[in-house]
Design a protein that fits this description.
The complex is a heterodimer of chains A (about 350) and B (about 500). Chain A contains 5 helices and 30 strands. Chain A has about 350 residues and is mainly beta. Chain A has 2 domains: about 140 residues; about 120 residues, no CATH class. Chain A has a 24-stranded mixed beta sheet that branches. The longest helix of chain A has 14 residues. The termini of chain A are far apart. With about 500 residues, chain B is α/β, with parallel strands linked by helices. Chain B has 16 helices and 8 strands. In chain B, strands 3-2-1-4-7-6-8-5 form an 8-stranded mixed beta sheet, with helices on both faces. The relative contact order of chain B is 0.13. The chains are: A mainly beta (about 350), B alpha/beta (about 500). The interface between A and B is large, with 58 and 52 residues.
Chain lengths: ~350, ~500
């Protein structure tokens, strides 16, 4: 009797986990292939899709009513000195150039056919502006923003994707996660021509004053260094460089290949790097340095005054956990910051 | 967090073997008198039963006769021999337990890292750059069912047109593969460069070797004909090559025919565990992510520097991973670079597939283990993970061996508590930790994928596991025979199931 009870209990416990398994096998509740990301990574994916969607909706009279239409002479745009937050929970359509009041919260998409100026402390869910955009101080973008030219005031927060057809200008104390434009300018710009300083990707420039560094190359033409490395001032390195430690590139040097360091990379002023820069730690670029990139850091990237990443003819990418830069920095292409709210200023 | 996981892993690796060895030391005093004890117990049981049945005298006489006979036969030499055999078996069992424990800890470390640790995707966001030139090679041998789908998907990828070339490698197909490729070449002039191969050594590695002679690009990306790449996939696979240390990249393979039957659903779980947790954890921990042969890119310069493709190996992907590693190149895994593939829908096809993988992997183990030990410039954990990866298919026959030894020892030893504990411990390790650590990994993978119901199928994976163990053990034995008999190893093509009309 006890034997039967024992074996019955044993098989019941053994087969218990198979009950939900058999149920799922027969009912096939979760038997579709894993959904995979296809085009969502493209920086303008949402704005492009929204344009198609909005153009179609606005062409249909009955759906058009679901949009709040704002014109320069409407009561809404006239109320400039709004002190209280006002929530606009409809999609917004702006057919002409307009300056929108302070303290507004737009919980749905904005579609503007011309220039738009957002007042202070505006919160924008997403906006597609075919003209130029000016964000006054302390504005917040939560999802995406696409325009021709974007001018960002002080202390703004740009989460999600922000892209411009021509230029993005960013003032101090702003945080952002993903920027894309042919030119991204940070802070006040000096009236100094970078070409006059020799800070360009110009292979014809005079390199006679540089000392060519002899490197021991592997079969693939790379120089691999175990430990830390300091490259002396005015050095010329023409191969790919891998440093299994930290790397310091001294003033005025020119690196024609790609560089990688397991620890931090410190780049002094007026250094030119024509390849990519990869580090498992921080990348610190000095004043007036030129980096063609991409600049890939698993921690922080900091750019000094007058630094340039990418060039007019060849855009580039900066990708890092956190990003900080001084004034007069130019980036041609894309900046991706994974943890935009980390403050790197005092590190 | 990473440090904490490392500390836990080290503690487990250090403490567990010491614990086991302490038990061995204690049980060394035990003499293998199991058979005698067993017979004595049998005698006692028989006595009890016979008394109850009132047949005591006859039964006792029989048992006493047996005992006398045995006592005469067990002379000094047999006793010593039995002791030696017993100790050898115990030692083998303990070594296997240790290896199983090591692999279990490895699975747990990977899973915990993936769920709680820092995740590394350093190259994923590269959007604007001076992209290198790429040739996409599509390996095709009798792929009329799938080749058009793969090429159409590749024609739609997001990559500078002047930097990409699509090259289907039609390797001596006897079906309509050539016809379909030529029709697509005609429809999209200049976009596809076909490579029809009608002679030479069979196999993908040999075809790749021949195709390399036609290439002038910096990077090659290899797909199988049944893979359907997404629009951003090529950029994602190429972006790590901006790192001068990266020799190869690997994307994630996702089964497309998941819902076909129970086997495809089990394989879907296994793939999830293998990529979503195992590969990404190795990427996170700076270990050895494996190049998988397809959905991956290779730097041509790196490939040439390590001697190019080898067509004399069964698993060119594993072989390449280790040759790159031994020549100061890294492999990068891109978890978000997903690509659909077909998985076997029939058990016999699955067995053939895993047997081929096992043979290829073992071949790589023989070729690269010593090199990996000696290699300078790799961290201790990189070497350890590299060795674990090389030995992963040897564990299946070892596990079967351990099962056999456990059963022998169970009957060979007395009912002594320590020895029983050893056997019990081995069973616990095999079933609770050794096998199920991998299941834990799969469960974490389904959680990370956001799949809510497929996790319930986990108990069925046990069947897949047992079949895999048998298939891999069979492959290993066959491989040993191949080596002794100097037979050439055979490459089996995996059967495709997709409808031609797709």
């Amino acid at each position: 009797m006890w034997d039967i009870a024992f074996f019955t209990a044993f098989f019941a416990i053994l087969l218990l986990p198979f009950t939900p398994a058999i149920k799922e096998w027969l009912l096939k509740k979760d038997a579709t292939p894993l959904w995979r990301v296809s085009t969502n990574d493209e920086v303008r994916h949402f704005s492009d899709r929204f344009k198609v969607f909005a153009d179609k909706e606005l062409s249909m009279a009955f759906i058009k009513d679901s949009y709040k239409i704002i014109t320069p002479d409407s009561e809404f745009s006239a109320a400039r000195s709004n002190k209280l937050f006002r929530v606009i929970d409809k999609k917004v359509y702006v057919p002409e150039s307009v300056r929108l009041p302070d303290n507004n919260v737009y919980t749905q998409e904005i579609y503007a056919k011309s220039h738009v100026e957002f007042g202070r402390k505006t919160k924008i869910y997403a906006a597609l502006v075919l003209g130029n955009v000016k964000l006054d101080d302390e504005c917040i973008v939560t999802r995406w923003l696409q325009a021709n030219v974007i001018e960002v005031g002080e202390s703004c927060k740009l989460f999600g994707r922000v892209s411009a057809d021509k230029k993005i200008e960013i003032k101090s104390n702003c945080i952002f996660s993903r920027l894309n434009a042919p030119i991204i300018e940070f802070g006040a710009q000096d009236n100094i021509d970078r070409e006059d300083l020799g800070i360009t990707q110009d292979r014809q420039k005079d390199i006679s004053h540089l000392r060519k560094v002899k490197c021991e190359l592997d079969a693939a033409g790379r120089c691999i260094i175990n430990g830390d490395c300091i490259i002396p001032p005015y050095s010329l390195i023409s191969c790919d460089l891998i440093v299994r430690g930290s790397l310091k590139i001294s003033h005025g040097s020119l690196i024609l290949g790609n560089i990688k360091a397991y620890k931090s990379i410190s780049i002094e002023s007026r250094v030119t790097i024509e390849g990519s820069i990869v580090s498992r730690a921080d990348i610190l670029a000095g004043d007036w340095s030129y980096l063609q990139g991409p600049v890939i850091s698993e921690k922080n990237v900091k750019l000094g005054h007058g630094a340039t990443v990418g060039s007019v003819g060849q855009s580039s990418t900066i990708t890092a956990l956190a990003f900080a830069c001084a004034d007069n920095v130019l980036v041609y292409g894309t900046i991706n910051v994974r943890l935009p709210e980390i403050d790197t200023a005092d590190d | 967090m990473r440090k904490l996981i490392n500390i836990i892993a080290i503690l487990c690796l250090v403490v567990m073997p010491q614990f086991v060895m302490a038990q061995v030391a204690r049980q060394n005093d035990v003499v293998p008198v199991g058979i005698i004890t067993l017979l004595s117990e049998m005698k006692d049981d028989t006595e009890a039963d016979n008394k109850a049945d009132n047949k005591t005298d006859k039964a006792l006489t029989l048992v006493e006769d047996d005992e006398d006979l045995l006592g005469n036969q067990l002379d000094e030499r047999a006793w010593t021999l039995a002791t030696i055999v017993y100790r050898i078996l115990t030692a083998i069992l303990l070594i296997i337990i240790f290896l199983m424990a090591f692999y279990s800890v490895r699975h747990y470390v990977f899973t915990l890292n993936r769920v709680f640790g820092d995740q590394r995707y350093p190259y994923l966001d590269i959007d604007s750059a001076n992209w290198p030139s790429v040739t996409v090679l599509v390996a095709a041998h009798n792929e009329e069912a799938v080749i058009a789908g793969a090429l159409n998907a590749l024609l739609n990828v997001d990559y500078p047109r002047d930097k990409i070339r699509i090259m289907p490698m039609n390797d001596r197909s006897t079906d309509r593969t050539r016809e379909i490729i030529d029709a697509l070449v005609e429809r999209y002039p200049g976009a596809i460069t076909p490579f029809h191969r009608s002679s030479g050594k069979p196999g993908k590695a040999a075809a790749l070797k021949d195709a390399m002679k036609l290439l002038d690009s910096e990077i090659i990306v290899v797909f199988d004909a049944d893979y359907l790449p997404s629009r951003g996939l090529v950029k994602q696979l190429v972006s790590p090559f901006f790192d001068p240390e990266v020799g190869a990249t690997m994307g994630r393979v996702v089964p497309q025919n998941v819902g076909s039957n129970l086997l495809t659903r089990i394989l879907d779980l296994e793939r999830s565990g293998g990529y979503q947790v195992d590969q990404q954890a190795r990427m996170n921990l700076h270990l050895v992510p494996q190049y998988g042969g397809t959905v991956g890119g290779i730097r041509v310069n790196a490939l040439e520097s390590i001697g190019g493709w080898r067509d004399d190996v069964l698993a060119e992907d594993t072989d390449l991973t280790y040759r790159l590693l031994l020549n100061d190149w890294k492999v990068v895994y891109q978890n978000r670079s997903e690509c659909y593939e077909e998985v076997p829908e029939v058990w016999s096809v699955r067995m053939k597939q895993i047997m081929r993988w096992a043979k290829g992997h073992n071949q790589a183990m023989i070729s690269h283990t010593i090199g990996l030990f000696k290699k300078q410039g790799l961290t201790f954990f990189e070497k350890l993970d590299g060795l674990a990866l090389l030995g992963v298919y040897v564990m299946a026959p070892l596990l079967m061996l351990a099962w056999v030894i456990s059963i022998i020892l169970f009957y060979f030893t007395p009912s002594f508590i320590v020895t029983t504990f050893i056997v019990f411990f081995s069973f616990v390790l095999f079933s609770a930790l050794g096998n199920f650590a991998a299941f834990f990994q799969m469960a974490a993978a389904t959680y990370l994928d956001g799949s809510r119901h497929r996790i319930r199928l986990l108990p069925f994976v046990l069947f897949g596991f047992v079949i895999s163990v048998v298939a891999i053990s069979q492959a290993t034995l066959s491989q040993l025979l191949d080596i002794f008999l100097k037979r050439e190893m055979k490459w089996d093509k995996t059967q495709r199931y997709r409808n031609t009309n797709h």
